[in-house]
Amino acid sequence: PIFGRYRISKDAVGVLTVYTLAQTAMSAFATVIDRSLCIPFLPIFSKYAEAARYSELRRSYRGLLLKVAALFVLFILAFVLVREWVVGFLSLFVFDVHVANMFWLFCVCLIGYSFGVVSGNVLVAVFYALKNTVTPTKIGMVGFFLGLAIKVAAYFYGGTIGVLLSISIYYLVNVLFLIIFLEVELNERVSG
Fold it and tell me: How far apart are CA 177 and CA 93, in angstroms?
């Protein structure tokens, strides 16, 4: 976060503020989805893991990830389709049209970040239900340093938008690796 904020602060006046607002909005969206849709599944994951019902655990977490993905696809479509309305609304009360467009674009760039936060929480919860805290920690540590490298490269090739997209890419890649390692662990437990 520090590198991204530092680099964005070197952009035009006000861009860091708009970035912070967009990240706050997308974090709030992720929190609502996480608390309303995902957290109710945590006891179910624990129950399946405790009873060694790994096939049901797999089916449960996959189903939840599909629901989350579907919800985010609908959000993306809606957000893109109502772009003019969002920009017009924001420009009436809060921003001028240029800043409202920037806010909208930043939110679009951070959709992968929001999806990654929610999906990552689901996957980590499954690992924890399996009493495995080491794997998600290792993935997170390696991902942090890879994410930093991605952000540096993205800034030099894409400026502020590059940094925003790299944040989403980082979270999506992290989710991908969590899925891969979780599937390997569940396969071992099902066949073992």
Answer: 42
User: Minimal CA–CA distance to 168: which of 53, 22, 60, 58?
Assistant: 22
- What's the confidence (pLDDT) of residue 6? 56
Whether the Cβ atoms of residue 68 and residue 37 lie closer than 8 Å to each other: yes
Cα 141 to chain centroid distance, Å, stands at 16
Residue 156's pLDDT is 85
Whole-number Å distance between alpha carbons of 49 and 58: 10
CB 168 within 8 A of CB 109: yes
Q: Do you know the residue count of the chain?
A: 192
Looking at the whole model, is its pTM more than 0.85? Answer: yes
Which tokens sit at 13? 């006046």
Q: Can you give the C-alpha Rg of the chain in angstroms? A: 19
Please check the confidence at residue 84 and state whether its pLDDT lies above 90.
no
